[in-house]
Amino acid sequence: MIFDLNTAKKTAELLLQINAIKLNPKNPFVWASGWKSPIYCDNRVILSYPQIRIFIREQISKQINELYGKPDLIAGVATGAIGIGMLVADMMNLPFIYVRPNSKKHGRKNQIEGSYAGDQNVVVIEDLVSTGNSSLMAVKALREVKLKVKGMISIFNYGFPISYKNFKNKKVKLNTLSSYDILLEQAFSSNYINDDELNILSKWKENPQDWDPSN
């Protein structure tokens, strides 16, 4: 869900500007899942641009306050959302924790790093949502230690129907600063992509797992 359209457009514009998002319909990227994709998103790039990371930090903090009220904790999903999650927690003067994909194999074998107590309210920060599976694994880990997940805010969301279904099934509220559809609008209006490329990019979202750029 997009909370603020102006923020969504501005976020998309900035991500394109710093190449945190790259669009290449004719020479697609290959994701870890094996999917061929005309888009690659690495929001960790944001951390290298002070003014842009300040904008992202401020917008996430604002949306947390307006959507959920001030929580007890901010949690980042490792590894992509650790940096921006820390910035949000610092701005809101809140404790910060982060969630690994799995428990460590050594030491204290933590999956959740940081100090927390059961029954505390937490908002989860994610850098990117595709199917939502890894994001929801983090929510599961937080809930298992009795933390109350108020919701999740991501920087970018591909908007796949499966992700909305997954979040609904796990009863997790998801909001995002920007989305794939908004990104395409901004990219087209700024002449970053042409009509043919817009068509290719739009078709990819309809069936990303079986998309073939040669068809």
Descriptive notes:
- This protein has helices at residues 5-17, 50-68, 82-91, 133-144, 161-169, 180-189, 195-206; strands at residues 21-23, 29-30, 36-37, 39-41, 73-77, 96-99, 112-113, 121-129, 148-157, 174-179.
- It is of the alpha/beta class and 215 residues long.
- The strands form three sheets. It has a six-stranded mixed sheet, sandwiched between helices. A two-stranded antiparallel sheet has the order 1-4.
- The chain starts with a helix and ends in a 9-residue tail after the last helix.
- The model has no long low-confidence stretch (mean pLDDT 93).
Mean pLDDT: 93
Radius of gyration from CA coordinates? 17 Å
CATH class placement: Alpha Beta
The number of strands is 10
Order of strands side by side in the largest beta sheet?
Answer: 7-6-5-8-9-10
Low-confidence stretches: none
Outline of the structure:
The protein has 215 residues and is α/β, with parallel strands linked by helices. It is 40% helix and 21% strand. Helix 4 links the parallel strand 8 and strand 9 (148-157).
